[in-house]
């Protein structure tokens, strides 16, 4: 049997995720395959690291929470002349604990996170175009 929650409960649960992760977390865009879980060691090369804003997600509404502001970063030396981003990890503001991870695609590609260009080169500007947390049953 699965539970059903009210819109108020779903929104509160999503807002609690942002609170638990904390202010100004680090977003890492990495090459390679998504690790098995958030406790697993980082995989692939770090292509971009973005220090997200203090308040980095919109307040949940209708069971959905989306990016707040513009999330933009610059390709690292490890990106070289162009490397495909395979996954992302959102870590605490010290960059030491992974709280959320998922797949990356180009805008409209249906990944957990979408970028303006997932083929990242050194010094290239990269912008997250879509990232949404959706509560079950929303």
Low-confidence stretches: none
Structural class: mainly beta
Q: How would a textbook summarize the main sheet?
A: 8 strands, mixed
Order of helices and strands: HEEEEEEEEEE
Percent of residues in beta strands: 35-45%
Give the total of beta strands: 10
Through-space gap between termini: 17 Å
Q: Considering DSSP H and I runs of 4 or more, what fraction of the residues is helical?
A: 10-25%
By DSSP (H or I, 4+ residues per run), the number of helices equals 1
Oligomer: single chain
Task: Give me the Rg, rounded.
Answer: 15 Å
Descriptive account of the structure:
By secondary structure, the chain is mostly beta strands. 11% of the residues lie in helices and 36% in strands. It contains one helix and ten strands; from the N terminus they run αββββββββββ. The strands form two sheets. Strands 1, 2, 3, 4, 6, 7, 8 and 10 form an eight-stranded mixed sheet that branches. A two-stranded antiparallel sheet has the order 5-9. Strand 6 (87-91) and strand 7 (98-106) form a beta hairpin. The longest helix is centred in the N-terminal third of the chain and has 15 residues, at 7-21. The radius of gyration is 15 Å and the shape is globular. The relative contact order is 0.25. The mean pLDDT is 95.
